[in-house]
Amino acid sequence: MKALRVLFLLLWMCAVYFVGIYLFMSGFLLVRLEVNRTSTCRDVLQPGQEPVDFCRVQPRFRRAVLLIIDALKIDFARFDPNNTAPRPHENKLPVLQETVSSQPSHSRLYPFRADPPTTTMQRIKGFTTGSLPTFVDVGNNFASSAILEDNLIHQFGQEKRVVFMGDDTWENLFPKKFYRSLPFPSFNVKDLHTVDNGILQHLYTTVGDDWDVLVAHFLGVDHCGHRFGPDHPAMADKLTQMDGVISVIGHLQNDTLLVVMGDHGMTDTGDHGGESQKETDAAVFLYSPAPLFPGPPSQNEPDVVPQTDLVPTLALLLGVPIPYSSVGQVLLPLFPPHGQTEGAVGGLSQMEALWINAKQVNRFLETYSSMAKDIPPESLSQLKDEFSRLSSDYLMTLREGRPPSPELAASLQAYLTSVRDTCQATWARFNPLKMAAGLAILALACLMCFILSELSCVLIRENGPRLKAPVVAALTVGVCVAVGQLLTQAYIELAWCLAAAAFSSELLFLWRACQSRKSAAAKNGTKAPKYANWLTPRHLLGPSLLVPLLRCASLLSDSYVIAEGRVVTFLVFSLALYIPIHLNWDSLLLPPSHDPLKSAGLLPSPALSPLTVRKESSTLLACLGLLIGSLYLSLFFHGCREEQGSCQPSPFLSPLSRVQDSQLKNLNYILAVVSLGLWTYMVRCCLRHYGNLNSSGGTVFTARWILPLLSVCLCLHWAVSATSEDSFRNLAELISLAQLALPRAAFCLLGLGLFLIWLDPVTVFVKARTGASARALSLPPPRYRASTGISPQAELHHLIPQIYQRMRLSLDDGELSGGHEEDSRPAVEAYGLGTVYSAPLLLFCGLLGIGLQLLHPEGMALSFLLLLLEMGALLHIHASSITLHNLHGTFSGFNVPWTPVVLWSLAATQFFHATGHLPTFPSIQWGAAFVGFPGGHTGTVLPASLVTLNTFGAHILFAGCPLLLFWPLVCEVRGSRGGKAFGEEGEDAVMEMRLRESPQQFSSSLLQLSTRYLFIHGAQVFASVCAAAILRRHLMVWKVFAPLMFESSGFLVSSVFLMIGVTLVLRVDVAVGHWFKRLIPDASR
Amino acid sequence: MWDHEIRAMASTNAIIVASMFMATVIPAVLVPDFSVYGTHLLWLYSVSGTVTAVSVAVFWLLGITPPTKKHTLGYKLSRLFRSCLYFFLSCLFFHTVVVLYGAPLIESALETFSLAVLLTSLTTLRCLCVLGPNVQAWIRVFSRHGAMSVWDTCLQITVACTVVGAWVGAFPIPLDWDRPWQVWPVSCSLGAMIGFLTGLVAAPAWIHYHRKQLTYKCK
Ligand SMILES: [Zn+2]
Ligand SMILES: [Zn+2]
């Protein structure tokens, strides 16, 4: 077979897709230019009379304490005395409310609104630089890099001693900026106490020591949320501990400002990252022993404080310059109204603070607009006019010596707000040209994939440099564009080179495909209609392509995106029901009734026995029932998006260590172990059934030993990780060792198993028989007939003895040449030859599945079992319907029709949801990164790949789609056995050896299957890309953005694993070829 | 002969359409606060009851139903009993399918079952009327060469339209428009009804248009 051609075509196809995705992403992901300037005390802000603004007056406070309690939601901070039965997270911080009510002019509590994305690093950037986030930084949480923009910590560090303790993200963001720092590892979310206890150990000794600004970042609340959710007693303990921490209030001196704040909130499941109000609304609490506010809370207090507003406020209160690129607005209540500045406190009045703030923002706006042209000129000039009007007003009032009117203050505030809004709107900036190019390339790639799948036979059959030309064209055009860019712009933009290369190769390929179709039609007129009818509307709008079309269309509406899991299940169910209906419509489902009234000419069915048909139909219907059952049950494993109000997330989603009821815990554990055992048993059973466990190769070793050992490992690991830390105190060390060793051992076993499969994929057991018995069985034609023999495990299975056609022929030749040796010639039986291709692939999937279960919560083992059942049901349905077609003599070739491929690829998306995943950032199961690495990681590659494996587990398992090609052949025995009753006595079940008999058809079918699978996933990527492009200015761009990211990454993972699967098949093919080469001289000797 | 049969079928369909129309209008006059959305179940049962009654009456009068082999009262009774049983079983079947499609299992079981009753009276009942209580014949009719008369083709078209209509009717449910017709099962029953009406109208037209291609074996 033309292995390399298939592989290269697929590789090239994927590469084109990747280029399209990359191009679109580089145009879609929002970018904001960073202004690399810093404010200093000596800056002159225009217009104004004073030469220096920032450090003009004595600062109000000399010192500040910033207590950042990660994920301190506003709900946690509020205290409701009427609530008699508070939930674990309610009423646990009474100190805040007590202080606010007893010292109203010393303290305030505000909701503190973060800008999405609500990830910790983005938030730290936000409330230190005062700028707004863009998409590019999403996901950088793994590798936080230093902040280069001007920021509060830098400003403090110029003349104050900044002491930091807590979350080590800060150390990475602000390297060498701290006078002293005590970082603690932050990434391990399972660890609730290291960071907090570390801070507490040093906090009290530091207070009153040598520092001016003390920053302490507590992580316990956030980790508790991630691990247990807000409604857990551990959260109550954690919040009570924080309550104690905040009581440092008593130790503060008069010149110190205390700020207690959360960086973001959390959802009801304890996660964060999105833009829902539960995630964005944190709390901020301000306190000072000296009076801070002019009076008790009044009417014109802000309802909600945006997070950026803290930056100018803190800067002006502490007498440092406002960071250069801050777009925040000072919190007016913290500044005394005009005319009260003469008091002992000193500092700026409201009006002065606003004025400095406005001038700083104006300066930033001018600098930014001179560097980047992305702010629309009309809104820019509008803002400029507004500022010059306000400044002339302000300067006029100053000159006249009258107090500025409150209206002026209000309009300055309005100006600051509108600058912020403009920036927010602009930094959602896209590169439409790149987006359009990406869309075009993706659209063409989809079209090409479709054509490739329809023309695969022609492409494989025809000799000629089919792929060479497009690749050469791509290279030439890409280099040309690069050179052109070098000549005109003096730098190379990689995206455009890639785009040009992909585009040219696509166009060339399409053109050649058209040509070859024409030539193929011209060459043999009989085959013309076969290739000509693939673009008719009738073909395109059949249900098998209508369903993926609906699925793609559903990505365009955010309501359907929210309900994606159910939508996909609905579609899979519809298509599954369509199969028997369609078969019945073609009168294939039932044996033709021997009704004399019906004409016999309608159904040409010479080899048709009603019994076989009935048996095949009942298999099909039973598998359909199984499919529908597992579809329905899989709905119980879905997670919940926050938009789905009344939805309850599946109880199986939480890890067992979170379950408190020990009986429930045991039950869940037993369920998980049983389903894992069933998984292992079913995979092994299938292999044994087809006689693949008899030989002594690497694959068989894997199936016999590594597979069960892996599941035992997994069970033990679950047991260890489910035990609560308190129950076995004296065994704590052993438990922590086991938590480290067991998963790592499982990883090693998995790696070893996969390696062995790769090394020695042939699972055929050869048994030589003496000539006597062979003769006894098949004397008349001196050929090698298959016969049932006794194998080491003969009692467990029916073995499928096979003889390969070509071998038979060559042996016949040998027999002709040396006829006299007939007696001594051994007959050959090969067990498991019929499933030589599918067995390694199946084992591969089985092993990987267990490995993926390791990365999931324990309860998901049930869902994985459903996945396996659904896979099996799909395969059998496909095999049965092919057999039914064959029985009626209407089908030929190995080609896999669209319907099973569509079902198969939609099932991947369906199980993405049914394994508890959602296309949203907060729902990513970060816990997977700590399986086997409870102490956290040093690098980022390993945790990222573990999380990727966890997220796209279903995509990975369903990438084993070459099974669809093999299964009808695997199930052939049943069909042909029935067929035998009619005739063709000598015909044995050849099963997958048919593929070797016609290698060309094998390659073309494999290519067709893979391209069809790629096409469906690619079309989904294309649809989500379209959705992102159309809805980019949508209010909920995050909801639209997230599916795009997940679809593209899913496509990436699917295509990579599809390639691995196809390569494995090709590897098996090569190995089988070697096997025959070894065998034939042996046998004919 | 051809035109005669088609005409008979068209008038039958017209009668059924008219009766469905009346089933909507008459309760609106008689019952206070009647509306298709507000008192959906009432409307639903009024329509399915009317369709059942009218179809049974019309098909009986026309004598479409395959003639019974025996004319004894007992045989007729058992036939009647079997028809009722099939009717009920089909309700259960549709209920199961709708639940599997994602309808709430317990919460609005009554609504789901009402939808199942409607679907049964639009599809299974027609099968019962045209083919009698004979599942084999039903399965046979829904194949490419299975239709044996104009009525069978009409049955194929209306059943397919009804089922597809109900299926399409589920599409608007997840949308966040908050319209009264998005409430379960209003959109599905409306879809089924519209599909059924379309089928009734389309079937005679389609058959008339394709009458040259259609060749039936005699019954
Ligand atoms: Zn955080
Ligand atoms: Zn967090």
From TrEMBL, chain A:
<keyword id="KW-0472">Membrane</keyword>
<keyword id="KW-0256">Endoplasmic reticulum</keyword>
<protein>
    <recommendedName>
        <fullName>GPI ethanolamine phosphate transferase 3, catalytic subunit</fullName>
    </recommendedName>
</protein>
<feature type="transmembrane region" description="Helical">
    <location>
        <begin position="618"/>
        <end position="637"/>
    </location>
</feature>
<dbReference type="InterPro" id="IPR037675">
    <property type="entry name" value="PIG-O_N"/>
</dbReference>
<feature type="transmembrane region" description="Helical">
    <location>
        <begin position="467"/>
        <end position="487"/>
    </location>
</feature>
<feature type="transmembrane region" description="Helical">
    <location>
        <begin position="666"/>
        <end position="682"/>
    </location>
</feature>
<dbReference type="InterPro" id="IPR002591">
    <property type="entry name" value="Phosphodiest/P_Trfase"/>
</dbReference>
<feature type="transmembrane region" description="Helical">
    <location>
        <begin position="435"/>
        <end position="460"/>
    </location>
</feature>
<feature type="transmembrane region" description="Helical">
    <location>
        <begin position="859"/>
        <end position="879"/>
    </location>
</feature>
<feature type="transmembrane region" description="Helical">
    <location>
        <begin position="1013"/>
        <end position="1031"/>
    </location>
</feature>
<dbReference type="GO" id="GO:0006506">
    <property type="term" value="P:GPI anchor biosynthetic process"/>
</dbReference>
<keyword id="KW-1133">Transmembrane helix</keyword>
<comment type="pathway">
    <text>Glycolipid biosynthesis; glycosylphosphatidylinositol-anchor biosynthesis.</text>
</comment>
<feature type="transmembrane region" description="Helical">
    <location>
        <begin position="1051"/>
        <end position="1076"/>
    </location>
</feature>
<feature type="transmembrane region" description="Helical">
    <location>
        <begin position="702"/>
        <end position="720"/>
    </location>
</feature>
<keyword id="KW-0812">Transmembrane</keyword>
<keyword id="KW-0808">Transferase</keyword>
<keyword id="KW-0337">GPI-anchor biosynthesis</keyword>
<dbReference type="GO" id="GO:0005789">
    <property type="term" value="C:endoplasmic reticulum membrane"/>
</dbReference>
<feature type="transmembrane region" description="Helical">
    <location>
        <begin position="567"/>
        <end position="585"/>
    </location>
</feature>
<feature type="transmembrane region" description="Helical">
    <location>
        <begin position="741"/>
        <end position="759"/>
    </location>
</feature>
Automatic annotation (TrEMBL), chain B:
<feature type="transmembrane region" description="Helical">
    <location>
        <begin position="183"/>
        <end position="207"/>
    </location>
</feature>
<dbReference type="InterPro" id="IPR009580">
    <property type="entry name" value="GPI_biosynthesis_protein_Pig-F"/>
</dbReference>
<keyword id="KW-0812">Transmembrane</keyword>
<keyword id="KW-0256">Endoplasmic reticulum</keyword>
<feature type="transmembrane region" description="Helical">
    <location>
        <begin position="84"/>
        <end position="106"/>
    </location>
</feature>
<keyword id="KW-0337">GPI-anchor biosynthesis</keyword>
<feature type="transmembrane region" description="Helical">
    <location>
        <begin position="153"/>
        <end position="171"/>
    </location>
</feature>
<protein>
    <recommendedName>
        <fullName>Phosphatidylinositol glycan anchor biosynthesis, class F</fullName>
    </recommendedName>
</protein>
<dbReference type="GO" id="GO:0006506">
    <property type="term" value="P:GPI anchor biosynthetic process"/>
</dbReference>
<keyword id="KW-1133">Transmembrane helix</keyword>
<dbReference type="Pfam" id="PF06699">
    <property type="entry name" value="PIG-F"/>
</dbReference>
<comment type="pathway">
    <text>Glycolipid biosynthesis; glycosylphosphatidylinositol-anchor biosynthesis.</text>
</comment>
<feature type="transmembrane region" description="Helical">
    <location>
        <begin position="42"/>
        <end position="63"/>
    </location>
</feature>
<dbReference type="GO" id="GO:0005789">
    <property type="term" value="C:endoplasmic reticulum membrane"/>
</dbReference>
<feature type="transmembrane region" description="Helical">
    <location>
        <begin position="112"/>
        <end position="132"/>
    </location>
</feature>
<keyword id="KW-0472">Membrane</keyword>
<feature type="transmembrane region" description="Helical">
    <location>
        <begin position="12"/>
        <end position="30"/>
    </location>
</feature>
